[in-house]
């Protein structure tokens, strides 16, 4: 198995010891959930419920109106008390269904014993994945039924299962691989059937030797599935970096993994595919790591989608004395929250709570042209120049030197001795570019 490197990257402290040994616990059934209609890339679905309706766990709350869209489902049984904009962990407020639970667990019918997925057609499998509302659980949240429908001229030759989990602090994927390996592997085989792929590789960073040896032992008789131990380097789990590390192939600028015959799925997504296809179970719960020095006890939890961050932090013993920041995700790519009253989404892999020492931002100072950000950029960009152009309103020039190729991994900002807000400028530049393209009718 190749042990290739991607260019650039950084080595932040791993900080995983607080939860890597902790088995997944069931979080208590929340009394209330807030379920945004938009939790994926694409169009929100059309809302199917209104205030006063009774709903059962697993019942669809929306129906997709476009191809790039998935439904959301009730994650508890109870009554809809509001359909209104609520704070969303990715920013702003978005239309959400609020459900007050009645304390019972009346689920919609799912299969008690596994269907033989090998008897299902590719179309039936795709339909079950779409109807279950599956969108990438690794954080990107792209609708899975779309991702696994590449055009005929772009056949997939290698399917890569992403078990890298390179974000510091987070261990949800690690624990899932240890505790649900068989389900993940069935999900992987289902994907191989859909994509007509004869070769799959599970990429896992070498800091998870137990997961590597478990996956190896479970696949040793299957010549179509390999396990690739990966260098511990951030962002090893980025799609393009993972493809480079596993196959040696480079996804071209502006291109997609399918351009080099590859497709990447997260291990959590594979497990949800297994549950959706074999048991017709909708995606209404997922694994979340709640961790960091700002929370009393770190845990890996099975959590209902829509559970508020505040409820999970309370279940973990509450805040420590010096909590200053709550982040949706990890410290590198996560988003700091202005309130803990935001819900867990399908793409929420972690809630990181930082204290004064770990979470206080240092003041920005002028660039000293050291080029460390250039050396650390895994996309071969010049973050200092891109950010500088955006800062002075020249974001169109920034597009010309690769602004839109940035994967927002945060490596440049992490390594910058001047603590320049490089990713903030890059995100601003991308937003201005998108706005300008929309105003121009997408002609650029
Ligand atoms: S410019 Fe973008 S891709 Fe490069 S290091 Fe910074 S955030 Fe990552
Ligand atoms: S790492 Fe920071 S200080 Fe060094 S060149 Fe990049 S932006 Fe400037």
Describe this structure in words.
- The protein is α/β, with parallel strands linked by helices and 444 residues long.
- Among the domains are: 117-279, Rossmann fold; 372-439, no CATH class.
- Helix content is 28%, strand content 18%.
- The protein has 14 helices and 16 strands.
- Strands 1-13-12-16-14-15 form a six-stranded mixed sheet, sandwiched between helices.
- Strand 12 (285-291) and strand 13 (299-304) form a beta hairpin.
- Helix 3 (172-179) runs parallel beside helix 5, helix 4 (181-195) crosses helix 7 and helix 11 (383-391) crosses helix 14 (422-439).
- The structure holds iron/sulfur cluster (2 copies).
- Residues 376-379, 381, 383, 406-412, 422-423, 426 line the site of one iron/sulfur cluster.
Gross morphology is: globular
Counting helices, strands and paired strands, the structural category is: alpha/beta
What is the percentage of strand-forming residues? 15-25%
Main pleated sheet: 6 strands, mixed
CATH topology of the domain at 117-279: Rossmann fold
CATH superfamily of the domain at 117-279: NADH-ubiquinone oxidoreductase 51kDa subunit
The spatial strand order of the largest sheet comes to 1-13-12-16-14-15
Instruction: Indicate the mean pLDDT.
Output: 94
Radius of gyration: 21 Å
Q: How many helical stretches?
A: 14
What ligand species are in this complex? iron/sulfur cluster
Number of strands: 16
> What are the segments in which pLDDT stays under 50 over at least 5 consecutive residues?
none
- CATH architectural category of the domain at 117-279: 3-Layer(aba) Sandwich
Distance between the termini: 42 Å
> Tell me, what is the CATH class of the domain at 117-279?
Alpha Beta
Order of secondary-structure elements? EEEEEEEHHEHHEHEHEHEEHEEEHHHHHH
Helical content (DSSP H or I, runs of 4+): 25-40%
């Amino acid at each position: 198995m190749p042990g290739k490197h991607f260019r650039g990257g950084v080595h932040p402290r791993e900080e995983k010891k607080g939860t890597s040994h902790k088995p997944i616990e069931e979080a208590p059934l929340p009394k209330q959930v807030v379920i945004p209609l938009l939790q994926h890339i694409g169009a929100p679905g059309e809302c199917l419920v209104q205030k006063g309706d009774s709903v059962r766990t697993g019942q669809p709350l929306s129906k997709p109106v476009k191809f790039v869209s998935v439904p959301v489902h009730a994650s508890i049984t109870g009554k809809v008390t509001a359909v209104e904009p609520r704070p969303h962990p990715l920013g702003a407020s978005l239309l959400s269904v609020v459900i007050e639970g009645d304390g019972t667990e009346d689920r919609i019918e799912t299969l008690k014993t596994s269907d033989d997925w090998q008897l299902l057609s590719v179309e039936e499998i795709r339909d079950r994945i779409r109807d279950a509302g599956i969108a990438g659980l690794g954080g990107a949240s792209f609708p899975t039924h779309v991702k696994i429908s590449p055009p005929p001229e772009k056949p997939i030759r290698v399917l890569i299962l992403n078990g890298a989990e390179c974000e510091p602090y987070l261990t949800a994927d690690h624990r899932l691989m240890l505790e649900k390996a068989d389900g993940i592997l069935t999900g992987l085989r289902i994907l191989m059937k859909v994509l007509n792929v004869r070769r799959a590789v599970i990429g896992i960073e070498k800091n998870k030797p137990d997961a590597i040896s478990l996956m190896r032992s479970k696949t040793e008789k299957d010549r179509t599935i390999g396990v690739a131990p990966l260098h511990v380097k951030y962002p090893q789990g980025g799609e393009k970096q993972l493809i480079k590390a596993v196959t040696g192939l480079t996804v071209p600028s502006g291109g997609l993994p399918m351009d080099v015959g590859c497709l990447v799925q997260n291990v959590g997504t594979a497990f949800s595919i297994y549950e959706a296809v074999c048991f017709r179970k909708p995606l209404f719960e997922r694994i979340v790591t709640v961790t960091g020095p700002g929370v009393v006890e770190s845990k890996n939890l099975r959590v209902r989608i829509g559970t508020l961050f505040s409820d999970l932090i309370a279940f973990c013993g509450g805040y420590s004395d010096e909590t200053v920041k709550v982040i949706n995700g990890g410290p590198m790519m996560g988003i700091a929250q202005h309130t803990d009253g935001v819900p867990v989404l399908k793409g929420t892999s972690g809630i990181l709570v930082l204290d004064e020492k770990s979470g206080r931002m240092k003041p920005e100072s002028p660039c000293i042209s050291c080029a460390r950000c250039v050396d650390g950029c895994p996309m071969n960009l010049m973050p200092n120049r891109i950010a500088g152009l955006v800062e002075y309103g020249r974001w169109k020039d920034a597009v010309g030197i690769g602004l839109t190729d940035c994967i927002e991994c945060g490596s440049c900002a992490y390594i910058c001795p001047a603590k320049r807000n490089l990713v903030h400028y890059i995100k601003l530049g991308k937003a201005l570019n998108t706005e300008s393209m929309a105003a121009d009718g997408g002609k650029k």
